[in-house]
Amino acid sequence: MAKYSKLEDGTILTVKKSNQISKKIKLIAIAAISFVTLGLLCSFFFMKDPVIKQGYIDNTEHRFNDTIGKYTFMTHMQRYPFDKALEAIKSGNEAEIAGYRSLILDYLFEFNRQTPSVIPDLSCKKPVFKATCSEPIFSGKRDSPAKIGLLIQFGFEVDTLLIILHQYRDLVDKIFILESTRTHFKNTKKPLVWERLKYSPEFLPFSDMVVHLVVDDAPLAAASDDMWQMERYQEHQRWSKFVEWNKDTKYFTDSDLLGFGDADEVPSLNVLTELKNCKFRDEIFVVDVGIWFPMGTIYQAFRTDFPVEFTLPYTLGDPTFYTLAGAMKGGVPSRQRGTSAHHILGGMHMSNYCYLPTILLKDMTCTECGMFDKDNLQLMKERFFSNDSQVIQKWQQERCSVSHWGTRIIDVQQLDNNNRQAVSVPWYLECNKGMFPSWEHLPDSRLL
Q1: Could you tell me one molecular function GO term of this UniProt entry (predicted)?
Q2: pLDDT tier at 10 (50, 70, 90 boundaries)?
Q3: Which of 12-26, 64-78, 119-133, 412-426 is predicted with the least confidence, judged by mean pLDDT?
Q4: I need a surface site. Which of 30, 117, 161, 277 has the fewest CB within 10 A?
């Protein structure tokens, strides 16, 4: 203000003020132009970097999250740049191939995460079981129920996750979801699924149950010829992250139980009730759950490679439960696949779920799969651009077929009484089969 104190002519003061404003406007304009120019130069420079370019392909091409409801699965997938992806594969440019491989995961995930179009049956209530503690592994009833933690590895199984969260509520105290920013196949970038689900209406009620453990990009940069390296690494990370969490929270004590497995390895309500309320015999600290393996439809049973004993060939010995004290004895505890010497029967392996987006995501990401190549991509393009929903339905039926397993699959009604003890459909699926029709190999209206 001092610079104007000597001025007596108000007009001059006004002109002076106007000149000052003009100078400010010019300075702002120059700064804005400089900022835009610098941004363009940086964009040009950084887009030369193939890793950053991959991120550009992943995150900015074909925005669709806010408009997904306007498209069918077929028309939505027609928006994926198939031709550019095929050109990248033909050129052999690994950075571009990785970008388009990551992008197709995003496209498939948008329909994989869609809420079932059938409303849940609210009149169907969760069964309640009373613990008997009569299994040979138990010495009697606990003075107070154990806390149960379940440590699972998770990929894209959204429908399965919804079913198991309903299954575990009030019986499992914490579910530790280990999720990676990279797939098992070629470390392809993937979305963190739980982060995208946790505030949606159907998943929000379970948010207090879930502890999200994330394996980020940093430790995964080193290449390896061992295709199973990622799975083993994630099992180690799952345990070390849990140990750190429990050290800070002191939530679980020595006699509490921890289960290890995948999201689709689901103990029955009866098994969980027994584990929660019954004491292991003194010499037992690890027990496998012998679950039924229907291999894609609830009307059949699969003879597995990892039964809990040879007289129960239609069981799979996962997940595996430890006392916390037993798990802390050394090494990295994980699922034992029927080798723990002790077991309890009841549950379902929800593998080979025949919802087409889920199937295609597994094809693209599982360790031994990796279906992102010229022939498969061309076939996908032809089917999505057929504009014929029957083509999609037939495609799903083809992928759901288990005829190549031959006599290893039988009708569930053919099981003997011993193997049938393992058969248990999760209650939320049993009550709401219309929400998840792929479990009966029926069309899903989300895809039409």
Answers
A1: beta-1,4-mannosylglycoprotein 4-beta-N-acetylglucosaminyltransferase activity
A2: very low
A3: 12-26
A4: 30
Mean pLDDT of 299-311: 97
Q: CB of 263 within 8 A of CB of 118?
A: no
266 closest CA partner among 171, 141, 379 = 171
CB 282 within 8 A of CB 139: yes
Within 10 angstroms of residue 195's Cβ, the number of other Cβ atoms is: 11
- Whether residue 378 is contained in a domain is answered as no
Query: What per-residue confidence (pLDDT) applies to 305?
Result: 96
Report the DSSP pairing between strands 343-349 and 286-292: parallel
The DSSP result for 44-85, as a single string, is: HHHTTSHHHHHHHHHHHSS--GGGGGGS-HHHHHTTS-HHHH
Coil, helix or strand at residue 13 = helix
The verdict on residue 191 lying in a domain is yes
Residue 303 domain-assigned (yes or no): no
Q: In terms of residue numbers, what domain contains 243? A: 138-287+316-347
Compute the average pLDDT of residues 10-18. 41
Q: Which of 53-67, 219-233, 425-439 has the lowest mean pLDDT?
A: 53-67
Q: Which of 125, 189, 195 is nearest to 427 (CA)?
A: 125
Rounded to the nearest 10 degrees, the angle between the axes of helix 82-91 and helix 94-112 is 150
Overall number of domains in the chain? 1
Reported as a pLDDT band with limits 50, 70 and 90, residue 333 is very high
Nearest partner of 356 among 264, 295, 445, judged by Cα: 445
